[in-house]
Design brief:
- This protein has 3 domains: about 90 residues, no CATH class; about 375 residues, Rossmann fold (3-Layer(aba) Sandwich); about 240 residues, 3-Layer(aba) Sandwich (Rossmann fold), CATH 3.40.50.2000.
- Helix content is about 50%, strand content about 15%.
- The chain has 35 helices and 22 strands.
- The strands form 5 sheets. Strands 5-8-9-2-1-10-11-15-16 form a 9-stranded mixed sheet, sandwiched between helices. Strands 19-18-17-20-21-22 form a 6-stranded parallel sheet, with helices on both faces. A 3-stranded antiparallel sheet has the order 12-14-13.
- A hairpin with a 6-residue loop joins strand 8 and strand 9.
- Helix 12 packs antiparallel against helix 13, helix 12 packs across helix 15 and helix 14 crosses helix 15.
Length: about 800
Amino acid sequence: MSQPQTVDLPLAPPRRSDAPVLAADIVERLTYRIGKDPRVAERHDWLSATILAIRDRVIDHWMDSTRSTYEQEHKRVYYLSLEFLIGRLMRDAVSNLGLLEETRDALASLGVDLDVIAELEADAALGNGGLGRLAACFMEAMASVDIPAYGYGIRYVNGLFRQELHDGWQAELPETWLADGNPWEFPRRESSYEVGFGGTVDTVGSETDGTGRCVWRPGERVIATAFDTPIVGWRGKRVNTLRLWSARPIDPILLDAFNAGDHIGALAESNRAETLTRVLYPADANPAGQELRLRQEFFFSSASLQDILRRHLQQYDSLTNLADKVAIQLNDTHPAVAVAELVRLLTDVHRLDFAASWHIARDCFGYTNHTLLPEALESWPIPLFERLLPRHMQIVYAVNAIVLREARAAHFDEASIRSISLIDESGERRVRMGNLAFVGSHSINGVSQLHTDLMKETVFANLHRLYPDRINAKTNGITPRRWLMQCNPDLFALVRETIGDAFMDDAAKLVDLDRFADDPAFVERFSAIKRENKVKLSNLVARRLGIRLDPDALFDVQIKRIHEYKRQMMNIVEAVALYDQIRSQPDRDWVPRVKLFAGKAAPSYLAAKGIIKLINDVARVINNDPAVRGLLKIVFVPNYNVSLAEVMVPGADLSEQISTAGMEASGTGNMKFALNGALTIGTLDGANVEIRDQVGRENIVIFGMTAEEVGTRRAEGYDPASVIENSRELSQALMAIESGVFSPDDRTRHADLIRSVRERDWFMLAADFDAYAAAQRRVDGIFADKPAWHAKTVRNTAHSGWFSADRTIREYASEIWRAG
């Protein structure tokens, strides 16, 4: 084993962190790093100085973690994800280091309020929704349970767009989260790698004497440069690294062209490189957008693998033990091209034979699948793939030959073989990235038990038949540090006072709270905290939208990516039906309700953008109708991100998890709501099944068809028109929307949305509507019975500890990664 040369230098002693020392350090950073006199410093100056002072203490733990991993030769986990929705980091770091009160006291002694400056921290725009937030929770959990890990992704300059509402329509604006710099990141110029595209593949040497090998000569090259962010685990036990790649050109400016007057052409290479890391999920409705998406995925996958191999060879003198020391997890299909890239690097660059390279790659990779929607399993047109990645196309064909031979040897029929193939030949030939990730991994996991079972029966049925030992279930989890301790500090304090500190290190101990669900004194305090959180959410809505909410109303919340299968449209159609009932039955004792929505629609997803407009159109009418008497309000809160979720989740009474059964892989929002004492209304989809099993059937409101029933109904020939005709409330609500009651300025605006329900209704809105409406009226009855409601909400918190990401990561570590 080769060891790098080291110099025996003394290590700096860890910094003290009592409040006076911390206060002095903050002032020192403010003066000498920010260049501000404390007497004239602004709030953002104090924020930067505080982050720098806390960051120094993080670095002490970070370096200790890195040294121990190297010295003890721990297996490292590498988590490849196109998204990391990490949110604000200061409170997370301070809390996990156990310095929250010291930091608060230090700042108070300087006349600064920690809570005020914490709100100024930028919310990193590195993700879209559940996929990215899961990756962030997993990074924190890996550090908390002492798993040495790197997260790899892209350092998006603008990331996902900032959402504004213009007359109720979604408008996409650049999210400039990096405009004022990022004090948490460390540029690593020494960790830079060339990443190529296009070009040709040559064969050098002789095949007959065994020296022949392929050499890829890219026609275009960019440099990937690393930026590292420390991710602090609970109690500072370990600090791991989130390494994000930024792109820069090899030649930033073509000086001859510039001097010749071609100023635009001279910067073309620079602009092309920088475009790679500009925006998360560029619209791919056109060929240019598709090409950019593939470029992004290969860019970060290649840079990450080069970095992994460099680090391994720095410590070991051979790559033959790579799978013993390295576990690489693919978070969905976005980094699936890494399978072909690792084979290329091992074969073409490091001179291993193809069979050995393929074996090593398969033993290193694990693949997490997040969708059962075939269209969401990425595939790329072969002409595009081959033009950008010619060597990888050769490798895909070679791997496919191995897989198809194995299928034929197992006597698979031709239809099964076609579904297994890495090449989809049903129309335009395309490379199936989900199949590549599957065959290139030793483990393929779903993210809930139901999702895993359905994977075996649907999208990967034949691959599962061929490789029956690979698919396994790893139900998602969330970090209780951010989603209870930090976002709901009053509830955290009450739980701690009531059952002690054990749950802080083992979330499963929250179950000790169950015996207090019928304790009037405890329930009174629990419900008072919920009301105060609702006041905070009401204040946020008033500040941003000018809408006043009654915190004593039932807060019914649906926050997630806008998509037809998540059925925000069913929610708003039910609101229209309820609106009609409230007006026509004024003598009925209605439960006041506020329906809150938040989420972003993909820029090219016109139906989802139409749903946002529909929600806002309905809100405008209902919120301004005096006949409603304040019994129903609709609110769409724009620009959903982690920081907004940290206010909306604790303030929710009811959690909407109403996806078409069989389509939501897991969900993590459902877990966050339950942990914070909200009841779930939902279908038996994704992790809702396991939430029901954990919290008890009596403490969740389940409705609608099961995944099996959805499949059966589709197979038998589902006729939504007849269902609508037989549902008075649904037919009247759809007719009101379709006729322009909520869009008097354009009475046909929502006609296409309604037509899609009447004629096709793939997502079963009509089929589940009456059951959903009836479930909502059951919710009204429970909410009106305050002792029963509060007992159920307490039991949701008490039985949500199983959904800790710590539990999930321990399962990954022992059953997939063999690490820790």
